[in-house]
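Deviation from plan, reported transparently: magnesium ion complex.
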Amino acid sequence: MIHSARFLVSNSTVDQCPKSSLPEYAFIGRSNVGKSSLINALTNNKKLAKTSGTPGKTKLINHFLINEAWCLVDLPGYGYAKISKQERKELKTLIQGYFANRKQLVNTFVLIDSRHEPQKIDIDFINALGTQQHPFSIVFTKIDKLSITQRQNNMSVYKSHLLEQGWESVPPLFESSAKNGEGKKEILNYIESINSNL
Ligand code: GTP
Ligand code: MG
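Because the crystal trials were delayed, the predicted structure below was used instead.
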């Protein structure tokens, strides 16, 4: 259960991030996939993280303190085409720096738009996390936009695609809707189970 959630700080480099040793959970994925919206859904606070219908909203590393005990981290999205080369380079450095150096990171949620077939940019990101031995889970977002049949079909296509990457098992998979709250409980229970084993 989340009983308190507050914004801590936004940073443009990992070195400036909070020095405390509180465990943290990062949200990453393509721009506009619903990272900030999911954080708001999990915390029951529509205004906590800034969201937008236009991709490229989140540009910094944003820390939110939960229950005064652990953090949710909202990251900028990758794969947004309509930005300058310079800006893309900076975002890449920010994201890579975060994953390479953030010792407090205990689990990453990679968000995937449940409507689409597996995309190379996401698979590359997932494979890189695996290579770097970062524990991660996958969250299929915006499931409110799909019928039950489409959901089942898209999930199984994705699972097979992951297995084809040569992983021995698929990571934990979640489905979520920031619109109707589906999947929140499962994600929060998962975080709690990790926290209780730290
Ligand atoms: P960037 O910060 O730009 O990388 O985007 P983001 O991944 O943080 O996405 P954000 O949460 O800002 O949401 C993008 C758009 O998708 C907004 O218009 C949201 O309202 C919408 N959205 C997010 N999650 C869901 C969902 O579960 N269902 C539906 N129907 N819309 C969603
Ligand atoms: Mg965002």
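Residues 5-196 form a domain with the Rossmann fold fold (CATH 3.40.50.300). We consider this an acceptable substitute for the interim report.
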